[in-house]
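Backbones bend. Our protein:
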Amino acid sequence: MPKGTPVPWSYIFIRLLFKFVLKIFYGTIVVENAELIPKSGEPCIVCANHSNSLTDALLLVTAIPSRTRNMLRLTAKSTQFGRRTFTSWLIESAGTVPIKRRKDFNDEDVDNTEVMEELIKSYMEALELGDAICLFPEGMSRYHPTIAPLKTGVARIVSDVLTRNRDKADFSISILTCSITYMHRQHFRSDVLVTFHRPIKFTPKDNPELVAPVDFNRIREVTARMQELISSGTVDAPSWDLVRSAKLASRMYAPLGTRMSLGDHVRLTRTFAEALKASEHPHEHDTDLEIQSLRRDLKNYQDRLVRLGIKDDRIRRPLTRRTILLRMCVRLLWSLVLFVISIPGLILWMPVFLTTFYAVHNFKKSGPIWDTWDEIAQYKLVYGLFSGGFVWLTSIMLTLPFASFTAVVVPLLMWITLRWLEDAIAAFRAFTALTRLLRVGEATAREMRDVREDLYARVKDLAVGTLGLPQDPEKHFMEKGGREKGRVRGKLESGAKYFSVRRRRKRDWNETLRLYDQVDYPEEDL
């Protein structure tokens, strides 16, 4: 079996560097089914949905264990090349191939013939050497809740490779599909799920229909199968409004927060999203009309929660006025304590926060949401890396007699400060939510509980009666799975993880480093 192309040092550097950076930017990165990844030496094309620009590629590079695959060959838009920037250097030095896009050239015709011929030639040669290549078959990254129809390029490359190796009885090539789900892709300390699916394996003997001459319908069938697999592992919805309603339905049906694994949370949300899609094009069937009505009422309920500034959980579990006041005091005191002890580290973090805020603020003005917001995380990663590195080097230069000590202490102080800051913001967020709950008043809270009870009954009926979900979701999802990353199992572990140095204990997978619950999405018509 071939061993694959030798890994360039720049690729190893990129993998190690951004594994570190991604672990800081995202709170929890959960990788599922890594054992399904074909090992080095087995020709493989890795395909995933593409909603977060360069971050998607970096995430796949770091998510695939180096002991399983030594490297991935990547592609990127041509405008990322030839610049005097760190991003351009990273892309070029990793052996990435440039692709020209019409929208980057004022919608003029662009000639990719030479590039594509070289790309396909180099990819076929790489595959025959046993390499893994990474392609995003949507063709472009975009900030949109639905997966675009996949292009047929991957299936055509498989067909070309099989045709070139038709006389090799033992030759095989696999398509490894992957679903990437960001809770909030551009927000600091949000969570990510990477789910690998079982590889689709092809051989000249078992798949003669893909050996030239090829009926193009066979190419379309392979592409459709890829789309089905990628879509099955993430929330694929036609609108942000539907995603919002599906998340609310999921939380109402199984209000477990992080006691449920991130994978189960995403799959449950996807299940409700698929059911609510019926309201996009309702028929005269009673079931479709009921789902349409449920979606409308879920939206109205969520809109009202947003206006009041509280979460559904505050309505589900009513608190007495005395309990609210007591918790407000505890949360406020705890947030102040954590903020005070974080001040020295926050001085180090301030250049990073200000630099990334300024860069992203200006970048958002450069185009529409659907074409810019998918690159926000990329900008934050790069500018955060540079400004963080500047802070580290400056600290060393200012303390030269103790440089070796500073080189270790500064990163440790910044990390523990980040942990304290997360807890401080979470505590203050709870304080503000309790304050709003106190202002809501008992009459309004009672009215909201009545609305919620009706919605919960309808969501439960849809889940159990129509979707075939468990009657007792809390018991089912609590017992399912194991010690997945970021998951909290029981009250004892919840308390222990609160003081964890590695990552903070979250109550809800929807949490980010914000003083409010992030439930809304851009209103621009996508």
Notes: The chain is about 55% helix and 10% strand. The mean pLDDT is 86.
